[in-house]
Specification:
Number of helices: 7
Radius of gyration: 30 Å
Oligomer: single chain
Strand order of the largest sheet: 7-4-6-5-9-8
CATH superfamily of the largest domain: MoaB/Mog-like domain
Strand content: 25-35%
Shape: elongated
Length: 425
C-alpha cells in the first residue's frame, strides 16, 4: 500500500535524510503499476522492448535434424569398435548439399559427407567429425574413433519446440531474441509501449543550450544529458522547457508534463533555499505527494521522490554530476519497473574488479559514489584512479569509465583495496 514517509525536520525545516537502502526500499514499495498499454512492433523495431505477453513458437527449431560439425553422416553402429589401431572403413556414397533437402540416405556401411548446418539424411543418426577420420581416397575413409547415436547433431525441436513459450511476458528483447524470432518466422510481436518521461529544467540562470548565455547565466546541460540517459533505457523523453523561479511557471509546466508522461523529472528543484519552489509545487501535484526529500548519499543528497496519482515525479539536483547519480540510483529502476520488465530480467550493471590507486575518505553514515578512471597495466590488471571534483563539474563524468560505492558503514577505502567499478553504459 502506498504511503508517505514519516520524517523529522530540523530547526530550519529541513527533512532528515534516509539511508540509500531505506530510500530504495521505500521507492520500490510506492511505485505505480507498470504500463499496460500494448503495441505491435516489427521484429526489426523490437530491440530493447519488453514483451507484453507470452510469445509461443509457431514451429519447431530446427525443423529438421542438422549437423553441428563438418564431417560424415553415419549410422552410429557402423563406427562401434573403431580405433586408431583398428579403424572402421566407410565408403563415401554421397554428399549433403547445403540448402537442399536429402531424400535418400547412405546404405549400411557407407556415409555421406556433410558440412555444419547440413540436414541429416535419412537412415543416419550421428555425425563423425573430420578430425576422427582419415581419407584413404576420394571415396573411402578410415574412422579412428567411434561415435554414439545423436552425437554432433541437433534434433528436431531441440532448440525450441512448437507451441513452447519462446519469450515470456516481461522479457527484454536483446539481439539474441531478435535472432530467435527470425528463426521461427515471427515478423511482429506485442510489446509494452515505451515509458514516457517529461523533463523540466528550472532556474532563472538557465538558458537553452543553443543560446549564447549573457553574463550571470549558463547553458542548460542537465536536460540534454538526462534525456540521453532516458533514451539509453529505451524510454521516450520529452522536454517541456525551462521554468523560471516562479511558482505559477513551474506549476503549469509540471502539470502539463504530468498529464502526458509516466515520469516527470524536474532538474534543479531539490536544493534547500528560500527561492526553491520545487518541493512546494511538487507536493500539490497529486496524492500521495512527496515520499521523501533527501538521501544520505554524495553526490545526489537533495533528491526529491514523489508520486502524484500514477505519475512518479523526481526533483533532481541542479549540479550535473549529482543529477546523473540520482538518475542512476532512483530513476533507472523506476523506468525499468514501469516498462513492464520482470525482476529476474532487470538489466545488470557491467562491473570490473580493479585495484584502488589512492586512499579515499568518506563520512560514516553516508553512501559515497566516486567517479573512477580505469587504466590497464602491462600485466593486464585494471587499476582504479579516483576522479575527484565538485558535483557541478560534468567533465569529471566524461573522464570517468564508471564509479565505485563506499558503503555508509565505512569511513573510506585504502589504497590497494580491490574495488568493484560499476561501468557507465
Amino acid at each position: 500500500m502506498n504511503q508517505t514517509i514519516k520524517t523529522n525536520r530540523d530547526m530550519l525545516g529541513r527533512v532528515d535524510t534516509l539511508s540509500l537502502q531505506e530510500a530504495l526500499l521505500f521507492l520500490q514499495q510506492n511505485l505505480p503499476p507498470c504500463t499496460t498499454r500494448k503495441v505491435k512492433v516489427s521484429r526489426d523495431e523490437a530491440l530493447g522492448r519488453i514483451c507484453s505477453e507470452d510469445i509461443f513458437s509457431p514451429e519447431n527449431l530446427p525443423p529438421y535434424p542438422r549437423s553441428t560439425m563438418d564431417g560424415y553422416a553415419v549410422r552410429a553402429k557402423d563406427t562401434f569398435g573403431a580405433s586408431e589401431k583398428l579403424p572402421a572403413y566407410l565408403e563415401i556414397s554421397g554428399e549433403v548439399i547445403m540448402g537442399q533437402f536429402p531424400t535418400e540416405g547412405p546404405l549400411p556401411g557407407t556415409c555421406y559427407s556433410i558440412a555444419t548446418g547440413g540436414i541429416l539424411p535419412p537412415d543416419t543418426d550421428s555425425v563423425i567429425m573430420l578430425e576422427h577420420t582419415v581419407a584413404i581416397d576420394g571415396s573411402m575413409i578410415e574412422v579412428t574413433q567411434p561415435v554414439a547415436t545423436g552425437v554432433n547433431i541437433i534434433n528436431v525441436g531441440e532448440d525450441i519446440k512448437q507451441n513452447e513459450i519462446l519469450l515470456a511476458a516481461g522479457h527484454l528483447i536483446r539481439p539474441q531474441e531478435i535472432g530467435l524470432l527470425s528463426g521461427v518466422g515471427l515478423g511482429t510481436i506485442e510489446v509494452f509501449r515505451r515509458v514516457r518521461v517529461g523533463i523540466i529544467s528550472t532556474g532563472d540562470e538557465i538558458v537553452s543550450p543553443d543560446q549564447q548565455p549573457p553574463p550571470g547565466k549558463i547553458r542548460d546541460m542537465n536536460s540534454v544529458s538526462i534525456a540521453a540517459q532516458v533514451r539509453g533505457l529505451n524510454a521516450r523523453p520529452a522536454f517541456y522547457g525551462i521554468a523560471t523561479d516562479d511558482e505559477e511557471s513551474l506549476t503549469n509546466m509540471i502539470r502539463e508534463a504530468k498529464a502526458a508522461n509516466d515520469i516527470v523529472l524536474v532538474s534543479g528543484s531539490s536544493s534547500v533555499g528560500v527561492r526553491d519552489l520545487g518541493e512546494k509545487v511538487i507536493e500539490k501535484m497529486g496524492s500521495p505527494g512527496i515520499l521523501l526529500h533527501g538521501v544520505s548519499i554524495k553526490p545526489g543528497k537533495p533528491v526529491i521522490i514523489a508520486r502524484a496519482d500514477d505519475t512518479m515525479i523526481f526533483g533532481l539536483p541542479g549540479h550535473p554530476v549529482s543529477a546523473a547519480v540520482a538518475f542512476e540510483l532512483f530513476v533507472r529502476p523506476t523506468i525499468q519497473h514501469i516498462s513492464g520488465i520482470t525482476a529476474d530480467n532487470l538489466p545488470q550493471y557491467r562491473t570490473v574488479k580493479a585495484r584502488l590507486m589512492r586512499n579515499l575518505n568518506s563520512a560514516s553514515g553516508r553512501t559515497d559514489f566516486v567517479r573512477i578512471q580505469l587504466k590497464i597495466t602491462p600485466e593486464r590488471e585494471p587499476e582504479a584512479y579516483p576522479i575527484l571534483g565538485k558535483s557541478g563539474a560534468l567533465s569529471t563524468m566524461v573522464k570517468a569509465h564508471g564509479f565505485i560505492e563506499i558503503a555508509e558503514k565505512l569511513q573510506g577505502l585504502k589504497e590497494g583495496a580491490l574495488v568493484e567499478v560499476r561501468l557507465f553504459d
